[in-house]
């Protein structure tokens, strides 16, 4: 069946009948009549429910749904996207190991890799992600992980997963893909060679800006069990209520993504033709540097994108103060359209050279397009641009 159907039909059976929606098991512990199954649940992910740091039925319903949609064997839901990233990296790496990573990654991921390198002696080599030969040359006998993102922030850069993953697999290296910006509706990285797929559930999967969460999906049972054991120690588990809200959000994921993409296409087109806008950097545009690679394995482009205001830094400041319907806020993937002026907010501490290295110019605006009516969004952007 199609993702639209599978996302809606999530069940948590009880004897003789099935609740139509997934119950919220807001409980830390489970009681037993005899001790056998209790001990069992503390030693493997598929034993009895014992204690919610190990497993919880509501969290499990979320994990099984996302694992199914991504084409994985199992998933681990966590308290945030960073929780999933840290749990997977700490669960699979040890001192002396080596990681190959795409150079444009989420800021929190880059900070984690820096930390692993500085404090735990795990070296990282950064690559563009466009060239299998570059990955082959970076591999050492200690390389354990190739870390990529489907669509990266803020440039919309896409690594060539279908051609890089086989190079990693041939060398026994685990390929991890953060697919937060694509979602399983637009890309299923496991089909293209990924071993582990990570999402910040906080974004499109939750979809309503009311949940902080993460999830890691595994293509094989062995890595799943290794990371599960570590996650239990790390304590990075998802809370049942956050999982319950996410299951509710997931039911409309396919509908929301279609609307996000429709709106993004309209707004990218509007901005490209606007005299106050110097450049639009959207992966969906035929002239984007990653467009051709992306087309080989990503089905559509609904993710946040960037545009540069001709008026530079001051225009960026005026624009973010000028929007009315569109909100000034971090994050993405919710129902509301959000903008950010990185040079004066998220990247304020960088000088002009460092900004350039991060592909951000003084007049860059990031926009995460929501599911409102596109004409209302365009009207608001138009009035804000006229003042910038
Ligand atoms: C937001 C985000 C994260 C971190 O997720 P949190 O839920 O904020 O911890 C990781 N990767 C990407 C691509 C993100 O956008």
Report on the structure:
This protein folds into two domains: 216 residues, Aspartate Aminotransferase, domain 2, CATH 3.40.640.10; 133 residues, Aspartate Aminotransferase, domain 1, CATH 3.90.1150. The protein is 40% helix and 15% strand. Helix 3 runs parallel beside helix 10 and helix 4 packs across helix 9. The longest helix has 20 residues. Keywords: Lyase, Pyridoxal phosphate. Its cofactor is pyridoxal 5'-phosphate.
Rg result: 21 Å
What global shape is seen? globular
- What ions, cofactors and ligands are bound? pyridoxal-5'-phosphate
CA(first)-CA(last) distance:
48 Å
Mean pLDDT: 95
Biggest β-sheet strands, sense, barrel: 7 strands, mixed
Sequence of secondary-structure elements? HHHEHEHEHEHEHEEHHHEHEHEEHEH
Helix fraction by DSSP (H/I, runs of at least 4):
25-40%
Question: What is the domain tally?
Answer: 2
Q: What is the top-level CATH class of the largest domain?
A: Alpha Beta
Strand order of the largest sheet: 1-7-6-5-4-2-3
Output the CATH homologous superfamily of the largest domain: Type I PLP-dependent aspartate aminotransferase-like (Major domain)
CATH architecture descriptor of the largest domain: 3-Layer(aba) Sandwich
CATH topology of the largest domain: Aspartate Aminotransferase, domain 2
Strand content: 5-15%
Q: Which structural class do the helices and strands define?
A: alpha/beta
Count of strand segments? 12
Number of helices: 15
The residue ranges in which pLDDT falls below 50 over 5 or more consecutive positions are none
């Amino acid at each position: 069946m199609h993702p639209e159907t599978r996302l809606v039909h999530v069940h948590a059976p009880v004897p003789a009948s099935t609740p139509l929606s997934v119950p919220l098991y807001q409980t830390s512990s489970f009681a037993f009549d005899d001790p056998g199954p209790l001990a069992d649940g503390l030693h493997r992910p598929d034993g009895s429910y014992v204690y919610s740091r190990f497993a919880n039925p509501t969290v499990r319903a979320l994990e099984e749904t996302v694992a199914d949609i991504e084409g994985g064997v199992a998933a681990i839901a966590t308290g945030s996207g960073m929780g999933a990233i840290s749990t997977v990296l700490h669960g699979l790496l040890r001192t002396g190991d080596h990681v190959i990573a795409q150079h444009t990654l989420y800021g929190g991921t880059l900070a984690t890799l820096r930390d692993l390198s500085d404090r735990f002696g795990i070296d990282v080599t950064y690559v563009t992600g466009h060239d299998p030969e570059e990955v082959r040359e970076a591999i050492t006998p200690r390389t354990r992980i190739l870390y990529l993102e489907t669509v990266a922030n803020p440039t919309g850069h896409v690594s060539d997963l279908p051609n890089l993953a086989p190079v990693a697999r041939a060398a026994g290296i685990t390929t991890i893909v953060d697919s937060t910006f694509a979602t399983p509706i637009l890309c299923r990285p496991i089909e293209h060679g990924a071993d582990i797929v990570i999402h910040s559930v906080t974004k499109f999967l939750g979809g309503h800006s009311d949940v902080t969460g993460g999830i890691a999906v595994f293509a094989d049972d062995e890595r799943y069990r290794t990371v599960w054991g570590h996650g239990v120690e790390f304590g990075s588990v998802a809370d049942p209520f956050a999982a319950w809200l996410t299951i509710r959000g997931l039911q409309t994921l396919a509908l929301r993504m279609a609307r996000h993409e429709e709106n993004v296409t309209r707004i990218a087109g509007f901005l490209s033709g606007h005299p106050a806008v110097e450049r639009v950097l959207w992966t969906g545009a035929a002239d984007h540097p990653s467009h051709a690679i992306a087309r080989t394995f990503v089905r559509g482009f609904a993710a946040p994108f960037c545009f540069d205001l001709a008026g530079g830094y001051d225009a960026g400041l005026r624009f973010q103060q000028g929007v009315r319907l569109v909100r000034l806020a971090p994050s993405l993937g919710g129902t509301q359209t959000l903008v950010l002026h990185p040079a004066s907010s998220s990247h304020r501490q960088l000088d002009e050279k460092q900004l350039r290295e991060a592909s951000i110019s003084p007049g860059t605006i990031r926009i995460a397009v929501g599911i409102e009516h596109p004409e209302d969004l365009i009207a608001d952007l138009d009035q804000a641009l006229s003042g910038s």
